[in-house]
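I have been asked to look over a protein record a colleague put together. Thanks in advance; the entry in question is below.
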Amino acid sequence: MDTRAPDPAVPAAGPLQTVAEHLFQELQEHFQALTASLNLRMEEMGNRISDLQKNVNDLMVQAGIQNAVKEQMVRSLS
């Protein structure tokens, strides 16, 4: 909350201003919670993508096509 002393030049907060400030505080808290939730989900998704990439690479090695793919990429870059 705001811990500043009230400005004597500004009239005391009316009920509408109090309600607006309360609403703004609630919106800010909900936005922060949503941001934290999205960040967590993105991190989880990144971990899953990394795991998937590792599994695909492992399967390609087991199938014997990993070296063929690398050779093909080197040839296309040349």
Summary: Residues 15-77 form one domain. The first helix runs from residue 15 to 63. The chain has one domain: 15-77. The helical segments are 15-63, 66-77.
